From TrEMBL:
SUPFAM superfamilies: Aminoacid dehydrogenase-like, N-terminal domain (SSF53223), NAD(P)-binding Rossmann-fold domains (SSF51735). Pfam families: ELFV_dehydrog, ELFV_dehydrog_N. InterPro entries: Aminoacid_DH-like_N_sf, Glu/Leu/Phe/Val/Trp_DH, Glu/Leu/Phe/Val/Trp_DH_C, Glu/Leu/Phe/Val/Trp_DH_dimer, Glu/Leu/Phe/Val_DH_AS, Glu_DH, Glu_Leu_Phe_Val_DH, NAD(P)-bd_dom_sf. Keywords: NAD, NADP, Nucleotide-binding, Oxidoreductase. GO terms for biological process: glutamate biosynthetic process. This is Glutamate dehydrogenase. SMART domains: ELFV_dehydrog. The keyword Nucleotide-binding applies. Substrate binds at K77, Q98, K101, G152, S384.
Length: 459
């Protein structure tokens, strides 16, 4: 079930299983434990080669994948990641998390993930188009609006989705909502680029409200964010809109720290430059928005030990970006709320640090509260689901309509995590604040397990 050569998947599996065992779920419903070996094996794994021609006429080959993990709740749904690090372990971990994340949205979506070890950086538009066409030539036979609806992910933005959709349409001779993240003039949804970041902040907004009995909001909070892609950019903009101060962003090469607060002008410059695959170091040196404010760039660093006093941390870059030592540093810096905009953004050691601190807090106000990515960042796939609904109806909702639906989904997700944790926490382990990681895992797992049972996948 879990292979030693698949460390990321093993981590995701252990994180889910350990919290289920720590809850009272198997005590109250022992039959659920036999679902674990079933739900933890993908229904189907597709691997294929992608052969394409670069601008010099040289043949290139990449490995392509689609992990169709679980369809109990609906068509497989999950992104396509284009990055040199892509391998089966990473895609299985992402697909496994996606099963339960999608369940928490309340929408009819199964879980899957895919991609290739192709690096879009440094490639021309023509090369990217040729790769996307070759990739879709292999993938098209396995996907469809009622089967599997991929989306974007790292390395797969609107340009790549457009090329893939065009290739699919030509091959299948039909227009259908088979990919999400499409252009707004041809089936895309408003608020889709913003959704994961906005949803993350809406989730944390409920955490702050619940922990402080409605006495506090984001206003006046200092917020450390990692990453500088869509999730980080839009989370930062929403935090600023709600009165918080964003003190950091980062990329794979380093971090920027601004104690006075990163501004919307900074974020606009980053958004423009990242489309050209520029690093934060380059952006800081080249864009005028950074010349008039005290922004520090730290090469080779993640922001967590450099941000100073913070109230909220939002890891929004990639997996395992908060270590156990960095978790301790955040707590020492006064951080009270940690929520993942990235998938499995914290190592197991970091989660253990956050959860241990939550349990020993003497008061609710002094507690550390951690929210896992499968709950806190489900806004992105939620709006992908809303895009699917709009495509099926051949309609387009306004930004206000989509944003309202997104906020409702995130509020319901938080309430589900909170209430499930309260219901399944052993009496001897009751603490000032319930475990949101336990609540998310139990709630998502139970929903999927019940659907699988009804469909005869276990008995």
């Amino acid at each position: 079930m879990v292979q030693p050569s698949e460390p990321e998947f093993e981590q995701a599996f252990n994180e889910l299983y350990s919290t289920l065992k720590d809850s009272s779920l198997f005590e109250k419903h022992p039959e659920y434990e036999k679902v674990i070996p079933v739900v933890s094996v993908p229904e189907r794994v597709i691997q294929f080669r992608v052969v394409w021609e670069d601008d010099n006429g040289v043949m290139q080959v990449n490995r392509g994948y689609r992990v169709q993990f679980n369809s109990a709740l609906g068509p497989y749904k999950g992104g396509l990641r284009l990055h040199p690090s892509v391998n089966l372990s990473i895609l299985k971990f992402l697909g496994y998390e996606q099963i339960f994340k999608n369940a928490l949205t309340g929408l009819s979506m199964g879980g899957g993930k895919g991609g290739a070890d192709f690096d879009p950086k440094g490639k021309s538009d023509n090369e990217i188009r040729k790769f996307c066409t070759a990739f879709m030539r292999q993938l098209a036979r396995y996907i469809g609006q009622f089967t599997d609806v991929p989306a974007g992910d790292i390395g797969t933005g609107g340009r790549e989705i457009g090329y893939m959709f065009g290739a699919y349409k030509q091959m299948q001779n039909q227009w259908e909502g088979v990919l999400t993240g499409k252009g707004l003039t041809w089936g895309g949804s408003l608020i889709r680029p913003e959704a994961t970041g906005y949803g993350l902040v809406y989730y944390v907004e409920k955490m702050i409200e619940k922990a402080t009995s409605g006495k506090e909001t984001f206003a006046g909070k200092r917020v450390a964010i990692s990453g500088s892609g869509n999730v980080a950019q839009y989370a930062a903009l929403k935090v600023i809109e709600l009165g918080g101060t964003v003190v950091s962003l980062s990329d794979s090469k380093g971090a920027i720290i601004c104690q006075e607060g990163i501004t919307p002008e900074h974020i606009a410059a980053i958004g423009e430059a990242k489309l050209k695959f520029k690093s934060l170091e380059q952006i800081k040196g080249e864009y005028s928005a950074f010349s008039t404010s005290p922004v520090q760039y730290i090469a080779g660093a993640r922001p967590w030990v450099h941000v100073g006093q913070v109230d909220v941390a939002l890891p929004s870059a990639t997996q395992n970006e908060v270590s156990g030592e960095e978790a301790k540093a955040l707590i020492a810096a006064g951080c009270k709320y940690i929520a993942e905009g990235s998938n499995m953004g914290s190592t197991q050691e970091a989660i253990d640090v956050f959860e241990a601190e939550r349990k020993v807090a003497s008061t609710v106000g002094g507690a550390i509260w951690y929210a896992p990515g499968k709950a806190a960042n489900c806004g992105g796939v939620a709006v992908s689901g809303l895009e699917m609904a709009q495509n099926s109806q051949r309609v387009s909702w306004t930004s206000e309509e989509v944003d309202a639906k997104l906020k409702e989904i995130m509020v319901n997700c938080f309430n589900t995590c909170y209430e499930t944790s309260v219901a399944y926490t052993a009496e001897s382990n009751k603490s000032t604040l319930p475990s949101l990681v336990m609540g998310a895992n139990v709630a998502g797992f139970v929903k999927v397990a019940e659907a699988m049972k009804d469909q005869g996948d276990w008995w």
